[in-house]
Amino acid sequence: PGIHPKTPPQRPPRVWCFPVQDFWGGGGVPKIWGGILRCEGEGSPKFGFFPKFEAFPKTWGSSHNLGGGGVPKKPRPPPKAPPVPPQARGMDLVEILSFLFQLSFSTLGKDYSVEGMSESLLTFLQHLREFGLVFQRKRKSRRFYPTRLAIALASGTAGPAGPAGPEPDGHGFVLVETNYRIYAYTDSELQVALIALFSELLYRFPNLVVAQVTRDSVQAAIANGITADQIIHFLRTRAHPVMATQTPVLPPTITDQIRLWELERDRLRFSDGVLYNQFLSQVDFEVLRDHARSLGVLVFENPGRRLMVVTPGGHPDVKRFWKRQKHNG
C-alpha cells in the first residue's frame, strides 16, 4: 500500500520483531489508534500490531519498514454509543445503591453470603469482582469478601473526618446542639463506644455518628458509675473547633439538664445501720445521741419516738458507751 503500480519498488519491505519498549525508548513519538501503535521520528514510519493491547509493555510486535512508502490515514473512530442506564440492563438502581452503602459498613476480611440477592444484584456483584472491589474464589461461590479498596472508596477514609477534621490526638470532633443531639465526626470505634455510654446512637455513617442524649441514657450511665461531671467533661474536652470558640463551650441547657437527671437518682440514699430504740427516758436518748453525733456515726434520729440509727462501724463504741452509762447510773 502507498506504492504506485507503475513505479517498481526499489527493495522489498523488511519485516522484523523486537520489544515494544523500543518504540518508547528510541526517541520517537508514539501514537495509538485502532489497536495499531505508530512511531514517528526515526526515518521511515513504523507500525506495531499487538494481539493484546492491554498487555503491550510485555508484548512482541511486528514492525514493517515501508521503505518510505505512503502512510495509511488514521481511521475514524466509531461513533460512541450513549451510555446504557442500569434500568435498561435489567438492574434496579435503588437496589444497587443500597448494596454499595451496605458495602461501606462491611468489615475487611469478613465473608458475606449472597443468599437473598436478586439476579441483577448478583450480576452487579460480578462487575465488582472484575474491578477488584470484592473477592470470590469462583464465580459461583456463595460468599464474597469486600477488599480494602472497596471499603476505602465507599467510606472515604482518605479525607478528613469532618469539617476541619479532628485533631490527631482525637480531640475536637464533637458538636452538641441544644436539642440534645450529638454529632461526632470520627470513625474511631473507641470514641463511638464512649459516646454510646451516655447517649442513644441514631445514625452512623463513615466518619460521622449522630446520637441523642436522653434521660434514660444519662441515668443508665450514672447507674454504671459515670457521673454527670464526667459526661460534661468528655463533651467539653472533645468539642469541635467551631464550638471551642463559644463561651460557654457547651450549651447551658445541656449541662444543667444532665446534672438534674443525676440529681433525680439522689432523692433516696440507702445506707446500712444499727437501730437504737426503747429508751426509758428522753435524757438517756439525748445522751446517747449526742455521743454518737460527736463520733460522727449518727445516721438518723427521731426524738419524738426516741429512736436513732448509727453506722455498723460505730456501733461497738456506742454500745460500750451505753453500757458504761448504765453501770455508772
Automatic annotation (TrEMBL):
The lineage of its organism: Eukaryota, Metazoa, Chordata, Craniata, Vertebrata. GO terms for biological process: nucleotide-excision repair; transcription by RNA polymerase II. This is General transcription factor IIH subunit 4. Its main location: nucleus. Component of the 7-subunit TFIIH core complex composed of XPB/ERCC3, XPD/ERCC2, GTF2H1, GTF2H2, GTF2H3, GTF2H4 and GTF2H5, which is active in NER. The core complex associates with the 3-subunit CDK-activating kinase (CAK) module composed of CCNH/cyclin H, CDK7 and MNAT1 to form the 10-subunit holoenzyme (holo-TFIIH) active in transcription. Component of the general transcription and DNA repair factor IIH (TFIIH) core complex, which is involved in general and transcription-coupled nucleotide excision repair (NER) of damaged DNA and, when complexed to CAK, in RNA transcription by RNA polymerase II. In NER, TFIIH acts by opening DNA around the lesion to allow the excision of the damaged oligonucleotide and its replacement by a new DNA fragment. In transcription, TFIIH has an essential role in transcription initiation. Residues 64-87 are annotated as: Disordered. It holds the Pfam family Tfb2. GO terms for molecular function: ATPase activator activity; double-stranded DNA binding. Keywords: DNA damage, DNA repair, Nucleus, Transcription, Transcription regulation. It comes from Corvus moneduloides (New Caledonian crow). It is found in: Nucleus. One of its GO terms (cellular component) is transcription factor TFIIH holo complex. Belongs to the TFB2 family.
